[in-house]
Amino acid sequence: DNRRRLEEQNRYRMDEQRKRMEDMKRQQEEFQRRQLEERQRREEMMARQRQEQGATLNIRRVLQKLRGVRFEDFEAVSAELSEVLAAELPQCGAQAERIQQEAEAALAQAQERVRVEQLQREEQERKRQEALEKA
After folding, report:
1. What's the average model confidence in pLDDT over 12-33?
2. Dist CA 80 CA 98 (whole Å)
3. What is the predicted pLDDT for the residue at 39?
């Protein structure tokens, strides 16, 4: 009788220990799964940020060209800007609206600068023609 009771107690302790081990194993697996998910989420976020930064940089390169464009190259750079905006703007994520505004402002400034340059050229040509006619 005493022996049977000891065996039952021993079996009970072993069952309890097995349950605790299973619980610990389950908790450890859950912890590892969460860590993996968090790492994957961070990697995806970093990849998305790199993609956004790359797209933003590509657009800003063309905007820089546009800021220094001359009359002769305005149409080509303007077309390049349209192409790069169509290709890269959707990938800019949260920065898309701000980049769009920058592009519109840079284009307006470039158009004004090219218009002034064209007026100056026309004025210079008119003066040159007047000088030729007087000579």
Report:
1. 97
2. 19
3. 98
- For 14, 53, 54, 93, the CA distances from 2, given in Å and listed in that order, are 18, 76, 77, 74
pLDDT value at residue 18: 97
Torsion of CA 11, 13, 16, 22, to 10 degrees: -80
Hey, what are 117's tokens?
Answer: 């340059």
The answer to whether the beta carbons of residues 59 and 89 sit under 8 Å apart is yes
H/E stretch holding 60: helix 2-67
Residue at token pair 């949260």: 94
Side-chain-side CA neighbours of 74 within 13 Å: the count stands at 16
CA gap 46, 53 in Å, rounded: 10
pLDDT at 47 over 90: yes
74-88 vs 96-134: helix crossing angle, rounded to 10: 170
The arithmetic mean of pLDDT across residues 93-99, rounded, is 93
